[in-house]
Specification:
single chain; 230 residues; alpha/beta; eight-stranded parallel β-barrel; 9 helices; globular
């Protein structure tokens, strides 16, 4: 199973964009998924939020369940009770499950449960801009994905670009040889200019939703983004 995960991580590194699908128009889902497939974008990002970790409130695990292969479900939990929601999302078919390190719960039992009940599901950890980067390192043996947030969902405060770049470089330096076995993503209020600034820093993928679906012509928008992130 370990070798299978290594292969999965290697393959996922080719996906440079995790699409925040919940920002799209639900009435156009079928057409949207067809356009994403045309652009070889199979990674879908789901923010699952209950309005308690932060003021953000979105759909729960039932939203994840609606999507099937070839789409890969990248699920980010921002909830008060991550253990319960994690179990629901795994049962709904989450391929990647990322937890906030700022949670009040101990994350170790959650990661252990995921690895026991769904060994192919990749585990992730996410941290807000002002959270001490060193806090994630005790979890490194249990996580496959490290997600750097550009803004704090609890306050809405966005990190300065210089601080964000410094943070990513610090993470890469501290990971050392472990870098090759980890996926690094950046999420939060992402626009194309910021994405182009971050891509050269050796991150694996960018998460974006609203910026992708803001315009009328999704095909043209995706063409610009995929070209810039290539």
């Amino acid at each position: 199973m370990k070798n299978e995960k290594v292969r999965s991580i290697s393959e996922l590194k080719s996906q440079r964009l995790s699409v925040g699908i919940l920002a799209s128009r639900w009435i156009d889902f079928k057409q949207t998924l067809e356009i994403l497939a045309q652009h070889q974008l199979h990674l879908l990002h789901f923010d699952i939020a209950d309005g308690q970790f932060s003021s953000l409130f979105t759909v729960g695990a039932i939203g994840v369940k609606q999507f099937s292969a070839p789409f890969i479900k990248d699920v980010h939990l921002m909830v008060k009770n991550p253990f319960l929601t994690a179990r629901e999302c795994v049962e709904a078919g989450a391929d990647i499950l990322t937890l906030q390190i700022e949670s009040d719960e101990d994350l170790n039992p959650i990661y252990d449960w995921i690895r026991h009940h769904s060994p192919t599901t990749l585990c992730g950890i996410s941290l807000c801009p002002n959270t001490d980067l060193n806090l994630i390192f005790p979890y490194l043996d249990k996580v496959d994905v490290i997600q750097i947030l550009t803004l704090d969902p609890r306050t809405g405060i966005k990190a300065e670009q210089a601080d964000l770049i410094k943070r990513i470089k610090q993470l890469l330096e501290q990971l050392g040889e472990q870098r090759q076995h980890k996926i690094i993503s950046v999420d939060g209020s992402m626009n194309l200019n910021l994405a182009k600034l971050l891509v050269p820093l050796d991150i694996d993928w960018i998460v974006s939703g609203s910026a992708l679906f803001a315009g009328e012509q999704l095909h043209d928008t995706l063409s610009r983004w995929t070209t810039a992130l290539a």
